[in-house]
Amino acid sequence: MIDSALTQVAAQLNEFLRRHANVTYDIVKVTNLVEQNGNVVPDTDNKMLLFLVNVERETASFTAGPGRGATVARFAEGTPPLHLNLSVMAAANFSGRHYPDALKFLSNTVSFFQRNPVFDHANTPDLDGRIDRLVLEIDSMDTNDLSNLWGILGGKYVPSILYKMRMVTFAASDVIAQSPPIGAQESGAVAR
Q1: Nearest Cα to Cα of residue 160 among 92, 87, 86
Q2: Is residue 164 part of a domain?
């Protein structure tokens, strides 16, 4: 599901940047900047790269219960869903005389996500059915943290921006057991 979240957001960004730059080739690529062996990933020159930097568990509480006036005949017991936030880097990998293009494409990327911070099934029909919606927001880093991050990534800094992509949810769809709600009638006995 993480792959679907990244590739579908990248596809939307790619369409925007292609229209904005009036080009027919793909500008956005979901890939690392550097291979595990330290070599630069091929075919990433003059591209906007989107890649995963971190995965963290969302710690906010999400409870869904019955609406007002609703009754529940049984509760399903199972593994609670796992909500994740993804740290996603958008990096403009343009060098030399193309450096001004890096700044232009990075600016256009920021503009795109500012205009489209939420991806759901209404505005992104191809969004993976297991994903309800994705919300992107800028994740600011100070210079020291940014330097450490690029050191971990193994690459030289290129113009980039870090986004927090909220919420990829892994839902355990298997129900382990069902139980009646507290105070419900059981075996013909009337709850008092």
Answers
A1: 92
A2: yes
Which CATH number do you get for residue 134?
Answer: 3.30.2000
The range of the structural domain enclosing residue 40 comes to 2-61+77-172
Task: Please report whether residue 69 resides in a domain.
Answer: no
**Number of folded domains that form the chain:** 1
Give the whole-angstrom CA distance, residue 16 versus residue 21.
9
Q: What is the value of pTM for the model shown?
A: 0.78
Per the prediction, the chain carries an average pLDDT of: 83
**74-78 CB contacts, 8 Å cutoff, 24+ apart:** 74/178, 74/179, 74/180, 74/181, 75/178, 75/179, 75/180, 75/181, 76/175, 76/177, 76/178, 77/175, 77/176, 77/177, 77/178, 77/179, 78/172, 78/173, 78/174, 78/175, 78/176
Token reading at 146? 């940014």
Which residue, chain included where needed, has tokens 């609670």? 80
d(CA 192, CA 180): 15
Question: Closest by alpha carbon to 109, among 5, 3, 10?
Answer: 10
In a domain, 133, yes or no: yes
Answer whether residue 41 shows pLDDT above 70.
yes
Name which of 105, 165, 181, 90 is nearest 133 in CA terms.
Answer: 165
